[in-house]
Each structure stands twice: as structure tokens, then as C-alpha cells.
Amino acid sequence: MFCEAWPDLQYFIFTNYVPHLLYYSHIPAALIALMFGFFVFLKSRFLEGKILFFISVLFFLWTSFNLVLWVSPDSQLNIFLWSFFGILTSLLFVSSLYFVYAFIDKKDVGLSTKIIFLILLLPSIVLAPTSYNLHTFNIVACEAVENISYTSYYYFTGFIVFIWILILAINRYRKAEDDFKKQIVYLTVGIEFFLLSFFTTGFFASYLVERGLINDFGLEQYGLFGMTFFMGVLAYLVVKFKAFNIKLLAAQALVVAIILLIASQFAFIRNNTNRILTGITLVVVSVFGWWLVRSVAKVDEQREELEVVNKELERLDKTKNEFINIASHQLRTPITVIRGVVSMIQQGDMDKLPAEARAKFYDGAMIKCNKLEEIINDILNATSLANNKFNVMDRKAEDIEVKKFFVDMVDSFKVETMERNINLSVGSLDESVPVIQGQRKYIEEAFTNLITNAIKYTPSSKATSEIRNTRDDSAEAKITISNKREGDFVIFSVKDNGIGIPAEEIPHLFQKFFRAKNATAMYVDGTGLGLFIIKEVAQGHGGDVWVESEVGKGTEFFIKLPIKQTGKVDVKKFIEAQANLKM
After folding, report:
1. Dmax over Cα atoms in the chain, in whole Å?
2. Are 392 and 544 in contact (CB under 8 A)?
3. Cα 358 from chain centre
4. Spatial contact of 371 and 525, defined as CB atoms under 8 Å apart
5. How deeply is 557 buried, as exposed, middle or buried, from its count of CB atoms within 10 A (0-12, 13-18, 19+)?
6. Among the residues of 211-354, which ranges form H helices?
7. What's the CATH architecture for 6-247?
8. Are 398 and 439 in contact, with CB atoms under 8 Å apart?
9. Does residue 127 sit in helix, strand or coil?
10. pLDDT tens per residue across span 154-173
């Protein structure tokens, strides 16, 4: 069924300013919102990205339905589409509030808040198919006659949302960090401008038409420009602050905006020549924009890589300085003790002490000498390995009997394990790998470092209560060495039930000078070079090293080594392995 006044109405639409405003306010705004929302939805996995996409779809439906109402003479279609405006508008308002919550808080709202959202939406949804929404249709003017109470309610919902967002933003702004405060301000200005323009123009258009003060709903077209402004603000947040965790280039946003603006001109062109020229311009700008985006993307990628490198260099420099401070302290302490003992000997004070007391001083001096030697060896070995000076590269690989190697190693730690009441043992050994080939000196040093760490960081009954509390006191403190074959390689394991390593620190564990925080808290002494040396030795032999750990449960280190060496250690492979580890 067609409207009676359609010919006159059609003439009015296509000969006055309204058509120009109509297409310009609807088509570009709807496309920009939909494209930006879809882009964010694809690029972001966060809740706020999904809500924004939902908002863009709602706005696209609203503008599409509204555009049809302006140009369609079908009264049945018009009244059907018109009945959805209350639902779409209410959903737009509440979704906007939901979006602000998710964007600022970076999490979903609680159940009680969702219930409030539903209560606000229910009247608009429930009353939409009733006469409380549209009570008749003006066949002459070709427009529905709205119930002002229903219309006032959903626009009043918009007003509530507007105030709610303002209060929420002010509250969150006070508690936010300085960098995020700017994002809150931009977001609030953008979405509040959209909401204010949308619900005020829509409300006044409905109210004035209802009162007969104006003839049509043209006023509401001005409110749609608020969405374009809102999308522009969001694009700025993405470019400037990486909002939604999206690395969108400013060039991309600029190119898309230009293409949309040029394409929108087809809605106004009435001349074929202008259509052709506009089409050529659109193609040229699209090609140039594609090239520009690709070029800027490469520059941005290089810049980000440099930022990562700079941050890593800063971290290494900071770690190195921390190591120098720690090492200098650890070097001075043994020297101070040794100097004290030597001074007592020179002055004859040592001879005046009982034999037992002298023995304690001598033992203390020897312990500090050993500690000093350990620190110096770690530094020298790490420096040598980092500079690709694997001293035994020119020697042929030696045969190492696996079982005897580990039994002897366990025996060498008997004093330490007995003192700490720790059970260090050789567990299951793969009988198919009785012998491996490698540089005994370095392999021995690697396992010595692993076992030493396991002993140090496995609490025993003799440890302090604070340390013991990191593990079940009833559990036996134990360290087990085992291995298994994997093709031409053998994987050795050193497992303990000690304090464990925080998951976030494991990726940095084999770097120079790095020590886990809980390890530093347990023992201040330590160079942070032991695990670095282990990795250098493993990779120098063509193998690798990794770790599995859980805080409070224990740690298991794995060293993967080839069973046989082809004459010498692979120098090329070793150098490649060191390239990313040099300071």
C-alpha cells in the first residue's frame, strides 16, 4: 500500500536541501561506524571491541531503517521499520554505557549492573509491538504517529545514560594513572557528544512533529553527525594510545576516511561526467592509499623493532649494573675476611687462640677463598663463552660414562647434602645411553652448577622457618638426576622439590646476571651467571637447556645433548647460538 501524497512528497524530497543532508548524514556515518566497529572486532579480542561492534551494527540498522522511511512510499514497510526505533535507540544508549564500563575498567560489569541495564531496556522492548509505541499511521504524510510517552521514555533512557557515563568517567578519572586519564577524557567527550546530539535531536524532532510545530523529522538528521565524531575520537585513541590493543597507523585511518568521503559524493552527483571523474579519483586515491599504508607499515614495524631492541639494551645495562654492585660486594666480603685472618697471623694474635678457634678462622678463610674463586670462575667463563672462546673447541670429544659420571658427581656433593639433610641421588638412567661424547670439563661444570643451585634452593629441616614454609615441611628434601633417550640425543634431568621459580621470570632465567626474585631473597650471594654458562655449554655442544617449575613445588632443569660428537664441537652452530646472547 502506497502513501497518497507520495508524488508530492517525492518532489519535495528530491528538490530541497533535505535529500542532500539526508544522504550525507546517513550513508557516510553508517559506513564509517560499521567499518570501524568491524575492524576493531577483528583486531581486538577484548570485551570492549565486541561491544563497539554491536553498537556500530545497531547504528547501521537505525540509519538504514531511517533512510528507507525517508524514501519509501510503502506504508506497510514504513510502519514495520518504524516500530523498531524504540528498541534500537534504547539498545544504543545502554550499549554505550556498557562500552564505557568495559573500556575504562578493562573487565565485564557485575550481575547487578547487568540487571539494571535489562530493567532500562524492558519497557522499550515489551511495548514496541503495542499501540503504546505507534498508535496509527498518517497515510497522507506517509509517516507513523508515535506515542509521545513511549518516545519520551527511551529518550529519557538516553538522558540517564548520559548522566551515568559522566559520573562514571569523573569517578574513574580520579583513580586512574596519568596516561590513562587522557584516554578517559577523550572517550567521554566523544561518546557524550554522540549521545547528546542523538537523543536531543531525536526527541525534539518527535516532540515537535507530535505537536504539529514542524512537518517532518528532518531535525534528527543533524544528530547522526555525532557518531562520525565519536568514531573519529576512537580512531585517535587507537592511533595515539593503542586503544583496544590495536596498532592502527594514522595513515590507515586517514586513507579510509578520504576514500569514504570521496565515495559519499556519488550520492549528490547528477552529472555523468562528474561521476566518471569522481570514480577515477576514487581509484587513484585507493591505489595511492594502499601504497602509503604499506610504506608506513614498514616504517612503523622497524620503529617498533628498534624500541624492543632499545628496551632490551636498557634492561641489560640495568642488569649489568646490578650485577656489578652485587659482585663487588661479594668480592669485597671474602677479601675482608681473608685480610683479617692474615692480619691476625702477622701480628701473632692467631697463635694466642686455642686450636679449635684457630681452626674455625682458617676454615672460614678457606670458605671465603673458595667463594672468591667461584665468583671469578663464573665471570671468566661467562666472558669467555660470550666472546665465542670455547677453549676446548679444537680438542676431540671425550667419551663420558653416564652412570659413573653422575655417581662420582653425587659423591662430590656428600658434605653439602649431609649438612642440609637433602637426599641427592641418581634416579632412572636410560641403559641404551651408557656413553655420551663431549667436553668433560664443561659438561661437568654445567651439571655442577645445576646441582649446586638445586641444593641451595631446596629447603631442608635445618633451614629457617620462612624458607621451609615454601615447601611442605613433611616432604623429604630431595634432588634426583635422571635421563632418557630421544633419537640421537639424550635429555638429562635434575629435579628438586625446592622453592620453585615464578612463571613470569622463567623466560629471562638463562640471561646474563639474571636471578629470580625469590632466589635473591633466599640467598643474597650469587652472580646470576651459572645458568647462562649452562646454556652456553649445552648449545656449544649442539644441544639445548630448558626448565619446568612451579613456585613452592620445585624445579626440573633439562639439558639436551647429542650422544655422539662428530670429531669436534660444531663451531658454526655454537657461534650462531651465542649471537643473540652477547651483551
Report:
1. 125
2. no
3. 59
4. yes
5. buried
6. 225-241, 250-264, 272-346
7. Up-down Bundle (1.20)
8. yes
9. coil
10. 889 999 999 999 999 999 99
Q: For residue 227, give the nearest of 22, 66, 25, 64 by alpha carbon.
A: 25
Please give the distance of CA 84 from its chain centroid, rounded to a whole number: 40
Question: pLDDT of 322-359, one tens digit each?
Answer: 666 656 655 666 677 777 778 778 878 777 778 887 78
Long-range contacts of 81-87 (CB under 8 A, 24+ apart): 82/134, 82/143, 82/144, 82/146, 83/128, 83/129, 83/133, 83/134, 83/144, 84/128, 86/124, 86/127, 86/128, 86/133, 86/150, 86/151, 86/154, 87/124, 87/125, 87/128
Angle, helices 530-540 vs 355-386, to 10°: value is: 50
Task: Calculate ∠ Cα 574-576-582, nearest 5°.
Answer: 95
| CA–CA separation, 243 and 100 (whole Å) | 13
Phi, psi of 404 (to 5 degrees): -65, -40
Sequence letter at residue 166:
L
- What type of residue sits at position 89? T
Among the listed residues 505, 45, 39, 101, the one whose alpha carbon sits nearest the alpha carbon of residue 231: 39
Distances (CA, A) of 47 to 3, 40, 97, 115, 544: 44, 11, 13, 18, 40
Q: Where are the domains of the chain?
A: 6-247, 310-368, 391-579
Residues 6+ apart with CB under 8 A from 95: 51, 54, 55, 58
The DSSP secondary structure of 475-517, one letter per residue, reads SPPEEEEEEEEETTEEEEEEEE-SS---GGGGGGTTSTT---H
- Amino acid in the structure at residue 400: I
Instruction: Supply the pLDDT for residue 566.
Output: 54
CA distance 234 to 194: 12
Residue 334 CA, chain-centre distance (Å), reads 44
Fold identical between 6-247 and 391-579? no
CA angle 569, 573, 576 (to 5 degrees): 140
In this structure, CATH architecture of domain 391-579: 2-Layer Sandwich (3.30)
147: left (phi over 0), alpha (psi -120 to 50) or beta: beta
Q: Give phi and psi for 213, each to the nearest 5.
A: -80, -25
pLDDT exceeds cutoff 70 at 282? yes
What does pTM read for this prediction?
0.52
DSSP 8-state class, residue 397: P
Report CA dihedral (232, 238, 244, 245) to the nearest 10 degrees.
Answer: 170
SS3 191: helix
